[in-house]
Amino acid sequence: FKGGDTCEYLLSSGRFLGEKVWQPHSCMMHKYKNSEAKTCLIDKHIVFIGDSRIRQLFYSFIKLINPQVREEGSKHGNIPFEDKSASIKVDFLWYPEVNGSMRQRIKSWTEGSVAKPHIIVAGAATWSIKIHNGSNEALTQYKINITSIAPLLEKLAKSSDVYWVLQDPVYEDMLSESRKMITNEKIDAYNEAAVRILNSSSRNSKAKVKVFSVSKLIAQETIMKSADGLHLPESSRDTNAMILMNVYCNKIMKPIDGSCCQPQPPLTLIQKLAFCFFTLSIFGYLIINLIHRNNFRKNKSCTDLESGEEKKPAISTPNVSTLEMLLHSFCKLGLIMTYFYLCDRANLFMKENKFYTHSSFFIPIIYILVLGVFYTENTKETKVLNREQTDEWKGWMQLVILIYHISGASTFLPVYMHIRVLVAAYLFQTGYGHFSYFWIKGDFAVYRVCQVLFRLNFLVVVLCVVMDRPYQFYYFVPLVTVWFMIIYATLAIWPQIVQKKANGNCLWHLGLLLKLICLLTCIYFLSYSQGAFEKIFSFWPLSKCFELNGNVYEWWFRWKLDRYVVFHGMLFAFLYLALQKRQMISEGKGDPLFSSRVSNVLLFISIVSFLTYSVWASSCKNKTECNELHPSVSVVQILAFILIRNIPGYARSVYSSFFAWFGKISLELFICQYHIWLAADTKGILVLIPGYPMFNVLVSTFIFVCVAHEISQITNDLAQIVVPKDNSTLLKRLLCVAGFFSGLLLFSAMQEQSRH
């Protein structure tokens, strides 16, 4: 890491990802929409002054504000543009040469009586080369003229943003006869003169003229596609305009995926308190550890001077106290959270935009599938969806989702639709797993609820504090948390119907089905009544958990997208356990689930259904329409996969330990990827080792997986301490947790007030 301002990198260096996607060095570029551009530039006056190339840049820039603009202005004259809705004025001033006329215009802005433009974009040289036939005298005069203009531009730079656009190379073979004297050698000489002279007298970094040299790099790759060898193709000048917008607007709009030119966000009060807490935990652990080591040394074996025999201490090893375990866990967590902060909040490591290619998604998928098959072992039990199998299922799905995120495959609709099924499958397992537990065990104790809620939410709550993000930002955890509470409420409210009670009287099965029908009715009503849904989750303090960007629409959208699949999981669990109880399925080792004939028919139907869904998902043309159908049809592929995986006895009796290992830490992997594998809150890619993409992915992945595994262990350790089995102790802990969240809400309100 060289340090310095990412704005300099944005203006001077980068490379193409593919043919059209420009990647600045070390930072991410945001793609501004018209509404965002208007918000950023409201009440601003922007001036482009120069030749025909600057005119091209002017048109590309104003099209970011209003895409309907046509290039109909005078080619050799001034062109005004105004957006009255946002009070934005953008002017192009025709000054094709750096001469006295251009100097006089720039000088007029430095005088007190004239309003200064907020942004000035200037540049010219090719006309001077053309008119004077590339003579050395013209270059000498250019140097004199730009020397006289430079102090004026530097004076303007104290209050305005001033950019000098260096001359792009030309494609000499395509130039007309009248432009043959414009050579790349001459252009380089003019650019060198401009760079050397500009800012030569300025010592104040804030008053510097920003040299826009990145256009040269873009032109080197694309000038061959030029219509006349001189002017850039439209895609290249659009890229230049977007860079210009990022340079000015990122510090104002602060887009998540626009890290270029964004200053490091200041620490909030809650973050400072978290830092103090983790620091005290580290020091506390070190002090206790030193005391224990010291005591252990005192108790070491020593020799009795009188008898010459060795005396053994009463205690040979110190017992690890609850306090020490607690401090040890917070000590490790503090170091891990420091890494999180450095990766995705401090401007320490580089971040890059994602770029999707089919090979970047499918090759890693094939690779991990081969690895998964290689690590095959026998299961301990051969029941449908046994523990090893569900861990394996979570594992391979999580790995596919991770590859989907880092490759930017969401832009490819067929892949997106299949990934939506994987997310739905996670929720299906939530419905299946929790229903099965409550139905079989009949355990509705507060301890069980607190254990599940703690394990689901601990990491996310810590990240909300450390990374200054709302709870809803990590949308999947709120989703599974709410669905767990819905499952619990459905089965726990009177009458409590469990398997033991239902075995005594079949009418209880009917009662449970009525409960499930009521749940389905509520889901259906809320999915088509956005107003009712938003009213429920807009009550304080629920609103603090489920609001994102000031409203709960995002939460409603996420909930609605997979609204039926948890119910499907519960219903599947009920039917499967009923069949199992009546011994209508065979779950012996190597035995097919049903009779050979029934198994073959079901297997054939499952394969056809699985492939039919894939064909439908691959033929999707519109994401909105497919998302509308997804909640109702995703269960088809999920059930098809379960039957394909479980009907053959040999398939049910083996599992991949490789995938199962990842499945055990799947939740931590899903959450940790936001900040220490991806970057800018999943919008980009973290770059620990610049210049070596494959090696960077290997190193960052290794650290990411180790951290996720460590956090999983920390969560398990803390769950035993924070959520004890003793009811009276648990009640005290719950009061402490309530106090913690009350304090968090108070400090959050103070932060909001200070921001406003």
TrEMBL record:
Question: What residues form the membrane-spanning segments?
Answer: 269-291, 355-375, 396-417, 423-440, 452-468, 474-494, 506-526, 561-579, 600-617, 659-679, 685-709, 730-750
Which keywords label this protein? Acyltransferase, Glycoprotein, Golgi apparatus, Membrane, Transferase, Transmembrane, Transmembrane helix
Which one GO biological process term can you cite for this protein?
A: carbohydrate metabolic process
Where in this chain does the record put each Cas1p 10 TM acyl transferase domain?
253-734
Looking up InterPro entries in the UniProt record yields:
Cas1_AcylTrans_dom, NXPE4_C
Task: List, for all copies, the residue spans of the domain called NXPE C-terminal.
Answer: 22-92
The protein's annotated catalytic reaction(s) are:
CMP-N-acetyl-beta-neuraminate + acetyl-CoA = CMP-N-acetyl-9-O-acetyl-beta-neuraminate + CoA; CMP-N-acetyl-beta-neuraminate + acetyl-CoA = CMP-N-acetyl-7-O-acetyl-beta-neuraminate + CoA; a ganglioside GD3 (d18:1(4E)) + acetyl-CoA = a ganglioside Ac-O-7-GD3(d18:1(4E)) + CoA
Bilayer topology annotation: Multi-pass membrane protein
Compartments annotated for it: namely: Golgi apparatus membrane
The EC designation for this entry is 2.3.1.45
A single GO molecular function term of this UniProt record: N-acetylneuraminate 9-O-acetyltransferase activity
* Origin: domain of life: Eukaryota
Name of a matching Pfam family? NXPE4_C
GO CC annotations on file: Golgi membrane
Broad class of where this protein is predominantly found? Golgi
Q: Which PANTHER family match?
A: N-ACETYLNEURAMINATE 9-O-ACETYLTRANSFERASE (PTHR13533:SF1)
The text of the family note is: Belongs to the PC-esterase family. CASD1 subfamily.
Q: What is this protein called?
A: N-acetylneuraminate (7)9-O-acetyltransferase
GN (gene name): Casd1
